[in-house]
Amino acid sequence: MFENNFTKQLVLIGGGHANVQVLKKLCMNNIKGLHTILISEHYEATYSGMTPGYIHKDFSKEEISIDLQRLCFNAGATFIRNKVVKLETNNQKLELQNLPSIYYDLLSINTGSTSNSKGIKIENSSRCFFVKPISLLVKNLNKIDQIIKNKKSKIAIIGGGIASYELAFSLLRRYENNLEITILGKNILKEKNLNRKTKKYLKKISNHLVIKEIQGEVVSITETHLTLKNGFIFECDLSLLSSGADIENWLSKSDLNKDKNGFIAVNDNLLSTNDKSIFVTGDACSIEKNFRPKSGVMAVRQGEVLKENIFLKLTGRSLIKFKPQKNWLYLVGTYKNYALLNYFFLSFHGRWCWKLKERIDRGFINKFKFTNNVSMTKKNLELENLKDIKMYCQGCGSKVSKKTLVNFLNEENSNPELSDASRITTNSSYMLQSIDHIKLFISLNPYDFGIISYLHSQNDILSSGGSVQTISVSQALPFSEGIIENFYMEYFMKGIKSEAIKDDSVIVSGHSYQSKEPGITITMNGIFKKQVSKNQGRENDLIYLSKPLGTGYLLAAYFNNSDFLSSIDFQNLLEWLKKGNGKASEISKSFNSNITTDISGFGLGSHLSDICKSSKLSAEIKLNKDILINKNIGILENFKSTGFDNNYSSSVNEILISDSNKLKNILYDPQTNGPLLLSIHKKDQIEFEKKFQLKLGFRPILLGKFKKSGDKLINVID
Ligand SMILES: Cc1cc2nc3c(=O)[nH]c(=O)nc-3n(C[C@H](O)[C@H](O)[C@H](O)COP(=O)(O)OP(=O)(O)OC[C@H]3O[C@@H](n4cnc5c(N)ncnc54)[C@H](O)[C@@H]3O)c2cc1C
Hints:
The protein is an alpha/beta fold.
């Protein structure tokens, strides 16, 4: 439930090492009146300290990643997976790559850095990979695997800092020494924090692993070779650019002050030196008069101050200062279970150093893992100058502000006169009409939710054999003001519109109000050529589902912090939630399917038994893993959506299924934008499946067939 009346918007850009700590603090504290959004390019944040360990396969992707959607869910924040492409500080506005702009009251930028390619001409055909941002390196590993696969390869690492060495060690282990690595750099091992003994160790290990070094400045990279400033040509199969840091264009083009190297200048509170509504941390910033080399350690340390300062600023208290260390602990993985430690004049190489590194790294990343059903009682704080809202208005008083509505309609160029009703013209004497409502899942991008709510409603029209003509939308927005109310209205409506356009359907009317339970209600009108109804099932017709099931219990598991579901599982779930049934309906119509229904909140068991009852038939079906969005049966056995028990009790008596059937729960799982249930004549089986696969890119799921009416409406065979 959204308890707050949101009056201030905190936007975090980038799930870097500092911003994730702000979100973690929000998991334990609620600031009344605050609405928080995280915008980041990927669903996962990669922890730099463990990335070399991931490259050499000591850790899995999950072990080194922070699941940003889940972190946002626990923090009560909204997660938008997208890329910021422009910052307008004068309007406090962010432009996103392919979503509507977002406005902020307070901004925190922690977007890391990219590899510095200044002064290097890189040809398009070159196989050059940037090692920063580190998340990109992780993403590109598959491509590197493809190049190196089964062939002794020559690799150039352009850089010469400690990261180049660590990268070289981990690549050699990943590819089992099937590599020849050369480190090329202007300044090899010149970091002043590394003591003499550490440098000696690094050289010794490199020699042992036959890593070569070439001193010099790379000026161009082609498909086959690198060229140095002195004219030397170095042939290689691929290169990795580990040549220091740079910031992205959108940030360097912003009017925030920069230091002499182009990084955003911040004061010791980590605030931009010329904009006190913007914090910048990590690789993207430089602290005035206190320059330090870029590192994940520094970003983590800054995060500890950032999270306090954001809270202090929002609650109107004095900020604390970040005092960067002059030197810090370096721990670099070398051989399997070995690491090299550097701290001031101390240097050690051994197994215990690896153990220490693993303990420190796991200690950090584990703070962002959530255990099942964690119930964090949050401490309550209040925004500075929070308006005292005694009671939320009821009745018509809970409408959104006229300003927000008019702004939105003007921007959309629709209904400028604010008329109360629309005239609908249609050639058909009959129309289909349906209404549906779903509640917003906390932390979900409201644009995606708009898409899902359209598709969820569209299923009612499709299942009657129709197509959508017009829609009316009623939106429940969270109690909020200004830019926050705008955000929800625009994201909900544009998400809905992105699907309506595909149907050529028109939004004819709408209503918006504020509620503690945000959500969307859509009324749809549709037309049809041939209406299908539930009583037309035919014996021996095949029963198909247009896509797999499982949204109910999977969402329940994910939002109960189950470690059964990873971030990738959630992404897969979201993809199915955003997949419509329009094409499947068209194909089934072309095969004269005379039964279609959508599997909705009542679940498969209830919908199929309704059809059987109306058609005076029974269904014989078989359940296998293909029917599930997520093939891990353990999740189905352990998690239930809140609607499960009602669904179970209303249809269990109609179904014959063995107690030992591990998939039995799927019959009662409520679906959000679930599949269509289609019946196809037996003779059309091959052609139907072929056409479906061709148009949709995946196979329809064959459940079973209709047969003569028996004792039970549904018989599940093992
Ligand atoms: C091979 C290698 C090994 C390293 N090992 C270590 C080590 O052991 N210890 C150490 O301290 N440092 C290490 N580093 C350095 C470390 O990776 C960086 O200094 C650190 O990741 C910077 O952290 P950050 O929080 O600033 O940003 P990042 O961790 O890079 O996070 C930035 C986030 O912002 C997102 N983002 C970027 N641009 C946008 C945008 N426009 N819109 C939305 N989101 C955006 C990204 O997707 C990412 O999630 C290593 C570097 C390399 C290359």
